[in-house]
Here is the input.
Amino acid sequence: MPSERPKRYWTSPDHADGPGAGDYQHDLAPWAEPAPGNVNRRSFLKAAGFTMAAVAAGCSKAPVKHALPMLHADETLTPGRALFYASVCGGCEAGCGMLVKTLDGRPIKLEGNPENPVGRGGLCAVGQASVLGLYDSHRLREPQLDGRAVSWDELDQTVMARLDHLRRNGGRVRVLSRTITSPTVRAAVHAFLEGFDDGRHVIYDPLSCSAILDAHQQTHGARILPRYRFEHAQVIVSFDADFLGTWVDPVTFSAGYRGGRQQLDQEHPAMSCHVQFESRMSLTGSNADTRYRVAPQEVGRLLAALAARLVPGDAASAVRAQNVPAALNRELHELADRLAAARGRSLVVCGTNELEHQLLCNAINHALGNYGKTLDLTRPSLQKQGDERAVEALVHELEQGVVDALIIADANPVFELPYGPRMAQLLDKSPLTVAFTERMDETAAQCKAVCPIPHFLESWGDAEPVAGFVSVQQPAMLKLGNTRPILETLYAWMAAPATADSLIKAHWQQHMHPRAHRTESFTAFWDRVVHDGHAELPPLPPTHAGFDAAPGRATASVPADDEGFALVLYPNLAMREGRHAYNPWLQELPDPVSKVTWGNYASLSTGAAKTLGVKEGDVVRLEVSNASPGPALELPVHVQPGQHDAVVAVALGYGGESTRRFEGIGPAWFQRQPTVGDDGRVGKNAASFLTFSDGRLGYTRHNVQITRTGKRLALAATQHHHFITVPEHLAPAGGLRRPIIQETTFPAYQNDPASGAFHVHTLEKDLYPPDHVYRGHHWAMVVDLAACTGCSACVIACQAENNIPVVGKDEVRRQREMHWLRIDRYYSGQGDDVDVAYQPMMCQHCDNAPCENVCPVLATVHTEEGLNAQVYNRCVGTRYCANNCAYKARRFNWFTYRRDDQLENLVLNPDVVVRSRGVMEKCSLCVQRIQEAKIEAKRRGEPLADGAVQTACQQSCPMQAITFGDVNDPESKIAKRLASPRHFRVLEETNVHPSVGYLTLVRNRVDGAQEGSVHHG
Amino acid sequence: MNRELVTYALLVGLALSVLALGAAARSFHLAGNQQDYEPVQPIDFSHRLHAGELRLDCLYCHHAADKSRHAGIPSADICMNCHQFVTAPLGAIQAEDKRALAEDRKPEQVVSAELAKIYRALALDLNREADAPLPEQPISWVKIHNLPDYVYFDHRAHVNAGVSCQKCHGNVESMERVRQVETLAMGWCVNCHRQANETGIGGKPVHASIDCTTCHY
Here is the structure.
């Protein structure tokens, strides 16, 4: 409904109700929050005195520097010039194509490979951050036998003696792994197990999709995961599937999703429509055009209501649908009509691991004619192959003590599965346990033999994440430790030792090359694949049959509604199942929705928090009421608007052994608070709440009781930090807000492309001539808010590119996080019925920059190309600039942040200075990339092409929401973006003329207030 | 008398001090300025001989200077392009030949002490054959032209714009041992950039930016 009153944006429930409610301290001055600890004048002077003494003692002669050139030059290597190698990301099973940037022989940055159909040019935050894992000094370097470092020969002898005995005398050998997308490794495991009488490969996915696989087994006769093609979908309906954040293959899905969101500024604008039903506030849900918050137990009913409308002759669903409330039912009918109208161009996805839901989902998609269009079964996804029934069988066998050898290949079942410590005891029952692992994790610690495996950037490998889309992973540097790939170890134990590259090459010659149907020789084929990083093979003949309505449909056991909460366990964007918990970049990445860093929390809706009488940061105890002794967990509360009232959500992947290393992270000063909790870890592991039902992992736990403990634990949330809106009680008379986010609806946009635009009073004329005339290049950036999903890949890309330090939990609480690029998340609406808007915010490079004219030492100045330059070596740290910045985009180095780990320092980008204490820093629009491209163009004698400079954030964005370029080139993409009627600048009325602009956020919905046209004083 | 003597003695002392300090003041540098730095290198490589007398092109050894930010210190491989065959100065070889003629014997192979260091680094014996027991050992040159970490100088931009190597490095071809001739201070850089913008380089107009971000990022 249209409203006269403009939309209010707020960042946390404390601010939701306007003046009079909430925490005024935050509104007035966020930094006025009392800092933890207590500094008085005296202790400050003491500290200052010591500093002076340290400075006086620190003077010394200029050091003699040595330069050691190589003895034998590598012809491909020119010092100082970056080389890019095509490879596959090993951050998760999605297997996105990527380019590895190596400088002077070491990988320093990962970028998406635009030519690879998996990933399509984007790379998520986890992928970007995995380069740090390469230089992790906690990685295992030597093989171990019973906790003692041994040589590979000794380990091989011991293991092979046992295996030979089993080969001769028969015995049960089990290989337990997560999904393996490498065809060569899969074949090697198969070949290895064939040597035994009873060998079996057990595959599980900690974030399981086995219900989808099982559903297709029933409806299509093949246990496959379809390849979802969001690019062909005009109507997308998702039930609890976080496909833009963590579900199956989020980067490729985002790349597909962007197709429906990038047709705005065209002659015939179009836009896909996305409806999300979910219990918690996921990244995907926050981007939906229409979002319904539903309890997990309602999903089946809602799907049935859709099916009753869409699937002819589905009487059972019609019966179930009767329980849906009338109002919601009406809206579901409308939705069904929309889906039916987009037959073959719609997509219904469901992220729950319930067979009933997935069967309904398949029936709906079949009835809509989506198979073959938006769901591809001829090229199924191989990214999830797990089958938890096999895991249950394995656990049963372990309990009976009949497993003679258990090999755990790059998986951590002790941490990821709900058995917990019992699993560790079960492992002891097997006479031979072997772990292939990069780090000493919970599982490896229980295994007799530990075989360290190399990082994916230092070994050969291959991947087939989608049937027929094959990629080669090539090493970008020599191995740092005495590690050995799984492939080599398995072949060594089959008494046929060979190197990984020769094994992969042989497998490709035998299996991949014949599939290619090309006339080229294998050598040419192989060279091409290694160069491109991937190849597209024709699909194999289909294994699936036609659709069969699966008469014997199981109904999920829906618990009787009770007083308790439903606990929803979810993977969050940075941690997923916890594999990368060692990674400080990911730990410090604010969750896109909650903005919390360093640790997990119990999410409650605003309403539920009110009912329970808990506030943000109160520690609560979660218990399952009808299970004793059941799992229990104490976690701080986070109040999450938009969540269902009967749901408490907790992220998986925290509380792992690998987070013990963060004990000493952050600057060592006298008020330092530890980043880790009392148990020495970051966050708590919630895996004990997972369930096994029907042979599938369940991520929802019903009948959970929440009790207050009276304790408090302040979350390190960044949502109040760097606050740029003006609270209403401080706003000028008649003006309600500063125009920061501009949004509209698609129908309104069709009527008027400029709809939603701010009514701002810009100055027509200036008294003075313009300060800056840009004769050469004039750099500018535009971020499309209709495309940005808030996925935060750009934040980590920026961190990797610009050597941004990690500060630790305590410093984040003190608002001292150093990210140059942050993603502001705003809510609008009331209570729990909220819309979410994301806005990447970085230095806006203003023409009339307020920071520039307050710097007493000219450390921040304007360049002739429109950049606002920060000169670190001039900066004396007065921080006037940060105080005067309207966008709060500047970051101050309060400390020389720890870079003790010499090995980890190898990840630093040598093209960007590592800033020291007392220096201000901020986004430079990747000026090092601009300079490199300019000098390189000059060297070649060519003009600088549009697109030759890509900033790190722009490159990584799976949605291609960021455009960067030279405004003075009228043909450039950026010039066209600037001409869009959707273009606006944040705080334009302050007349600072920012070079960074945004495009209006457009939501594809019919109702909704016509936003904008805000008139203020 | 005594007091007078003391006064004279002090005056003489003062005069001597002024003279001594005056001489030292000429080579006084502010902290961080390493002008005239001329360290002893692990191998007495002579730029005068190679670049001056033999007229080797600078880019023959410093081959990345027109392609990359760094000019590059040549790998020992590059030395071996010639020194596989040339093992000593011409004079030394001629002297040995003369001696051998006088003593009526075959001339022996002469290997200069400095070149022997390169062979040692590459784990070669004096006949330039691989010597198994020796490990390879990279040569640890002393870096002369040092810029602070926050300065990004790009050789490629200057070489391709036509700035001669000598403009910044002095007449290296006349130096037996390389010395830092210029101050490498920011004022010196900026002055040159300003001048280039006015006069161009080699008659060609150029745009040498004096923005901070040209070098600092």
Chain A is about 25% helix and 20% strand. The CA atoms of residues 582 and 976 of chain A lie 43 Å apart.
